[in-house]
């Protein structure tokens, strides 16, 4: 089996205020500290590969991890943030007034972002990337882990797949900025090992 360490990007100025989406926003000071902490923790582990969402805040989180490990940051579109289309940049107070936003949060498994992605599509592309990385590294690096830097809902979608949990229940998972979650993935089985670690 391949062990994956899923790292959520660090904090950035729009966190808890507006929907950043795929727009490129830099980490704030708290986010930089979270990225540095994740790098220190991960540097002690046997890491075979480092993959990141192409979105700037994820790449910026991955960079100190790469430096600590002596590895490159490999951009993987499968781990990109959800395409929120016209919702990108909107404040949550404004989004809360939209029936489509409320439906998206209550019924993730059957409701998509208008003009953007469905949660099923996000989960499918993320799990396709997980399978590709497992196929590439499980034989060559049997003791090595793969680090993936991504976004809260993408990480939740991956964990939901491993747990066999409906996408409608995603909000039951807490994934904080800079946190790490680990799972083991094999050809016939998968197991969640740790969720939302911050130390």
What do you see in this structure?
By secondary structure, the protein is of the alpha/beta class. It has one domain: Rossmann fold (3-Layer(aba) Sandwich), CATH 3.40.50. The chain is built from 6 helices and 6 strands. It has a 6-stranded mixed β-sheet with strand order 3-2-4-1-5-6. Helix 5 crosses helix 6. The chain starts with a strand and ends with a strand.
In short:
The protein has helices spanning 29-42, 56-69, 92-95, 99-106, 119-137, 152-163; strands at residues 2-8, 47-52, 74-75, 145-150, 180-185, 190-197. The chain is of the alpha/beta class and 199 residues long. The two termini are 25 Å apart.
Question: Please, what is the average pLDDT?
Answer: 96
Question: For the record, what is the CATH homologous superfamily label?
Answer: Phosphoglycerate mutase-like
CATH architecture: 3-Layer(aba) Sandwich
Largest sheet: 6 strands, mixed
Number of domains: 1
End-to-end C-alpha gap:
25 Å
Q: What is the class in the CATH system?
A: Alpha Beta
CATH topology: Rossmann fold
Poorly predicted segments = none
What is the number of helices?
Answer: 6
| Strand proportion | 15-25%
What's the number of extended β-strand segments? 6
In spatial order, strands of the major sheet run 3-2-4-1-5-6
Our Rg estimate from Cα atoms comes to: 16 Å
| Secondary-structure element series | EHEHEHHHEHEE
Structural class: alpha/beta
Can you give the helix content as a percent range?
25-40%
Characterize the overall form. Answer: globular
